[in-house]
Each structure stands twice: as C-alpha cells, then as structure tokens.
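Supplementary Text 2. Reproducibility record for the structural model of the 147-residue chain.

All settings were left at their defaults, and a single model was retained for analysis rather than an ensemble. We include the record here because the model underlies the residue-level annotations in Supplementary Table 4.
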Amino acid sequence: MRPLKFRAIIKYNSIQQREARKMGENTKFAVIYFTLLDLLNPNFSNRTLLVPWLKEGNEPDESIGLLDRNLKQIWEGDVVNLIPDGYTPYANEVIYDPIMCAFGFLGIRGVGKGWISIDKFLSNAPISQIEIIGNTRENPELRKERK
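Retained model, structure tokens:
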C-alpha cells in the first residue's frame, strides 16, 4: 500500500509575505508537504502554519500517486492538460469523487467536459499524455473556464 501524502497550499498574510521576501522567496503561498505521521509529530517544522490552517476547516490536497510527463507529482486540485495523440490538448481538474471512491479528471476546456476516472483514462492512454499546468489554489482562474 502506498503511503498517503498531502499538500497544503497556505496563503501568507502580509507579515508572512514580508518574512518570505527576506528569506529570498517571492511568493504569496506556503506549500507544505506532509504525511499523517507528520501531524502527530510535535517537532514537525511546518506545524505552526499547518495546524491552524487545518483547524479553520481547510482541506489539504492528496497525492494521487502518479507522476506526469515531466516527472512531477500529480495532486488533487491540479489542473492538467490531457494530450491524446494527434488531438488538441484539453484541460481537466484532478478531483476525488466520493461516490465513485476514485480520483478522476473533470473537464474544464476542450472536448472532455465530463468526469473520467484516472484508471479509465490510463487504460486507453499512457501517463506521458498528462501534463500539469497549475493548481486551483494558487491559480483559481484556471477553474473559471468550466461551464
């Protein structure tokens, strides 16, 4: 069984942004990767940002356990281009469907406007036809194209 990995994308407040700039980071977000065991560890380095964020009712993104064509980890909430051979790429958001108990792609633009499970997509196409173009937490405008 694969270990469950999570990602929290936390928007910095203005003081945290200033501190991040002092450290040489030019970002509005903290990206924290963690496992369930990290939450139990009182010495976890990002605990001061992560625990209050979780207590506010925010949900982290879960890794789906696959890498895209550029060998980047694919996470729930990512927007990916599906690039079928010989066809125009189309964008989809990676979501978890609790009814199907599976991760899948929900169409944003292009030909794929419905939901398709990742297993079904991969039964017809290689993983090399998936490319991450962003995520909906840092780039919410990517989601706005869905109708």
